[in-house]
Specification:
The protein is α/β, with parallel strands linked by helices and 288 residues long. It is globular, with a radius of gyration of 18 Å. It binds adenosine monophosphate (AMP), fe (iii) ion (2 copies) and zinc ion (ZN). The site of one fe (iii) ion has 4 residues, from loops.
Length: 288
Amino acid sequence: MNEVDLHTHTTASDGTHTPPQLVSRAAKLAVKVIAITDHDSTAGVPSAQTAGERLGVEVIAGVEINTDVPGAEVHILGYFVDPDHEELNVELARIREGRVGRARKMAEVLTGMGAPVRFERILEIAGEGSVGRPHVAQALLEAGHVATFGEAFEKYIGRNSPAYVERMKFTPAEACGLIRRAGGVPVLAHPVFFDRYGAIKSSVNLEALLAETIAAGLLGLETYYPNYDAVTVEYLLGIARRYGLVVTGGTDFHGSKPNEPDLGGVYVPRKVVRRLREAWERAMDDGR
Ligand code: AMP
Ligand code: FE
Ligand code: FE
Ligand code: ZN
């Protein structure tokens, strides 16, 4: 296992581990530095940091904001954000409320399609966390409408599937600005993804996206990620160098799931943490 994992989800969003459970797992696997990057919430950070102090795991405060781009998934990570920053919390709360309304809509659409799921059940599955499509997928699975999690996305709630419902989102540039104002380092998450045949599927023009987000304060590019082979990593390292961005990486851990890496299961060089921290310090000196 690796010592660094800068992309993890807890029960504060759609992960299966509570923040203290996630930190215990990191300690058990000898992962020394983790970042908690829940979707649209920093609620998991304080209890993870408390557990981290006890167990000798450094816990970096983070967040992952899913942004609004036509036809694409663009996620912006924010590292070293102040979890109590007022504007950040007000805006994230607004996004989370949008998630609840959207889950209700999805339940309606699914029911109309002959795959009834109860909205209340989706909320129950989400518990305290930001409700999202994985919770809807779980409800579909429980109701016996699909046999696997993947099938739920393919058949019903994937971006191009019939029960997909949009929700309130920021633009990538707005997310970067918000993270900077909250004292954090904005990083473009998983910049390339692959289709089911393993081909690179870039639904956004990466160069145009970078121009726009760097102008809004973007400072980093996620470069080490599950299934990113050496060629992809080199490609992203080259882009980062060209644009003067720091690189980050992690597993996007959502819980121990088959075919997904465990915490620390993606190679991330230790120096990444130092450079990320330096970028944060520089940003703090320039701004505010
Ligand atoms: P949401 O933020 O509610 O739109 O849900 C996005 C989350 O759904 C992602 O962070 C993943 O955890 C999960 N997800 C998205 N697409 C898939 C997929 N095809 N298979 C499994 N999980 C997915
Ligand atoms: Fe997720
Ligand atoms: Fe993401
Ligand atoms: Zn993530």
